[in-house]
Write a structure and sequence with these properties.
Layout (H helix, E strand, L loop, with lengths): L1 E4 L11 E7 L2 E8 L7 H5 L7 H6 L6 H16 L5 H29 L3 H22 L8 E2 L2 E2 L7 H24 L2 H7 L7 H7 L4 H4 L7 H4 L20 H25 L16 E9 L2 E9 L5 E7 L1 H7 L1 H5 L6 H7 L5 H4 L2
Helix pairs in contact: 3-4, 4-5, 4-11, 5-6, 6-11
């Protein structure tokens, strides 16, 4: 029989439906159904100026809005042939890694609630506030920041912000050790994650899965390292990966990434050069195309923009990593039990806003 896990099931982390076909308690087939939240953002952007599009891209994913508005600005910079000042590049790197930590903590807290570990939910949301506060000090907002600009960022960092960022990293590293004790010391958490939802390396690559789910399957690929952008080529950090390909490996990759993000933030704020934080972008873009790719917290995000000589994009196309990952859901689920659906799909870090763009 077919069972609907959604569209209001807490496991979905958004408005979508997962239909699973079961034989007793065992899953024999699965069909993800998306489109419940479709907003037509790509078409909306074609009726806005290049600057007016930035707040719209902020709303692609509420968990990593800085990442998406930054990606949009990079695609338009490629279209216009703009060179971003070094200081702006370092600022972007610092805020992107803060956003990565905040995003991973939101996932970790929600994942804990999915598996019945309310202590993990409370701790994760508590410590996420530290980095949300830093982003609020910089941008004035706590969720959708409207901070990146075509040609740089909207304004420079405030006085003392760099010292606050370093203290936040020190605090976060202490909390990460605490999380490892809480999660990995829980027999229930380990039983529901180890050996569950296995995705092999070759299959992950063939399906186009990217980000932590791909790296947890043994494919050590990260755009920040393999196709560096901004000032990432100046940063010393490791690409986090595992070989098991199960739910625990995906959890572990994100935990390790938060350690590395703290390393990157420290380097970005300590090496940040003086100078301008923005170049003036032309009002109209030339006729042509621009493309950019970034390592979003959920995988490889990409935008393709077409200019026609006016002040508006003629066409904007968004590549959502979660759209590809959720399309691969049957490969994660077949052969496991109904109770495993919550752990498997919750561990993928779904964000339906970017999926149903």
């Amino acid at each position: 029989m077919w069972i609907n896990m959604g569209p209001q099931h807490p496991m979905t982390h958004g408005l979508w439906n997962l239909r699973i076909k079961v034989d007793g308690e065992t899953i024999v087939d699965a069909e993800p159904e998306v489109g419940y939240l479709h907003r037509g953002i790509e078409k909306i952007c074609e009726n806005r100026t290049f600057t007016q599009v930035i707040p719209i891209t902020d709303r692609l994913c509420y968990g990593s809005s800085m990442s998406w508005s930054h990606l949009y600005c990079r695609s338009v910079e490629d279209l216009m042939g703009l060179e971003v000042p070094p200081r702006a590049q370092y600022i972007r790197v610092a805020v992107l890694e803060m956003q990565r930590i905040a995003s991973h903590l939101m996932w970790l807290a929600a994942y804990a609630a999915d598996l019945g570990m309310m202590a993990g939910f409370i701790y994760g949301m508590r410590d996420r506030e530290v980095f949300v506060d830093l982003l609020q000090d910089l941008t004035g907002s706590r969720l959708t920041y409207n901070y990146p600009r075509v040609g740089g960022v909207s304004h420079d960092v405030p006085p003392g912000w760099d010292k606050d960022a370093l203290r936040a990293c020190d605090y976060m590293e202490q909390r990460l050790r605490e999380y490892e004790d809480i999660y990995e010391g829980s027999k229930i958490f380990m039983m529901r994650n180890v050996g569950v939802g296995v995705l092999k390396r070759d299959l992950a690559m063939n399906l186009g899965v990217t980000g932590p789910p791909m790296r947890a399957s043994g494919a050590k690929y990260d755009l920040r390292k393999d196709r560096p952008y901004e000032a990432y080529d100046e940063m010393d950090f490791q690409v986090c990966s595992r070989t098991e390909g199960d739910c625990f490996a995906r959890y572990r990759v994100r935990m390790d990434e938060m350690w590395e993000s703290c390393r990157i933030i420290r380097q970005a704020v300590q090496k940040m050069p003086k100078g301008e934080w923005r170049v003036v972008a032309p009002r109209n873009a030339p006729a042509g195309t621009g493309v950019a790719m970034v390592e979003d917290p959920r995988g490889e995000g990409m935008m393709y923009v077409v200019g026609d000589g006016t002040d508006r994009p003629y066409r904007l196309k968004i590549r959502s990593p979660i759209f590809v990952t959720v399309s691969a859901a049957p490969q994660f689920l077949v052969g496991y039990k109904i109770a495993d659906v919550v752990a498997i799909m919750g561990g993928l870090d779904m964000c339906i806003g970017e999926n149903d763009r």
